[in-house]
Please model this.
Amino acid sequence: MTQQGKVLIIGASRGIGLAVAQAFAGQGWQVSATHRSGVPAAGNQPEIHWHALDMTQAAAVQQFARQFSGAQFDAMLINAGISGPAHQQLAQSSDQELAQLFLTNAVAPVRSAEILLPLLKQNGVLALTSSQLGSLNENPQATMPIYAASKAALNMLSRTLVAAVEAQDGTLLTLHPGWVKTDMGGESAPLTAEESAAGIVRQLTGWQGRGGHHYVDYAGQSLHW
Ligand SMILES: NC(=O)c1ccc[n+]([C@@H]2O[C@H](COP(=O)([O-])OP(=O)(O)OC[C@H]3O[C@@H](n4cnc5c(N)ncnc54)[C@H](OP(=O)(O)O)[C@@H]3O)[C@@H](O)[C@H]2O)c1
Model:
């Protein structure tokens, strides 16, 4: 199979990230993917190169970027995220839980993107996995409020990446993967990780060279901020 390109996926040990890594590998892409606690058995394939990384550790992300110095990825997906306490009640959440939620879902993805951006090819696509729930317009009832607020913060902070991405003639995507059957999405979700991943691959490849900052779902539908 001819090599299609290179993609970097942060947070790929399970769920959507793992399915995206497998989908790219299946299309002959060279995949660099991260885990925190060991290579997942399902990701043990020659096209996927695994690296340990906790995205919330800025020094580790800097070290990770140095390790890849000179590499040029066609696409980068910063996918890692957590949902916070199941009760989603602000008053019942500890300061530590809230700090970890906002650090993981809002601060660390954008800080990591800033650090990793020099590794994106000219015309490449940088995507951050957000959620439709992070939109004030798409989520008027504040479903899953503290998780949604962390993704709203991600959406706003992602704006700070626009100038740097544009300077590389790149495209920035704030991506909703759909509601997906994973540890986070649960069994009632309508989409499988494979269905979501197939759409995400189409977005990461289809937006190459188009420029701008877009809030889209896995199927390419535009969302209101
Ligand atoms: N599932 C849905 O319906 C849905 C809907 C909208 C948006 N999303 C978003 O899609 C993304 C993936 O969700 P998912 O459903 O696949 O969730 P998941 O099954 O819970 O997987 C989350 C992934 O993020 C990784 N991760 C968490 N914190 C990390 C950190 N500090 N550093 C590095 N990796 C970290 C996890 O690694 P470990 O295995 O080490 O924990 C795991 O690989 C998340 O950003 C989520 O918010 C999901």
Notes: The chain is about 35% helix and 20% strand.
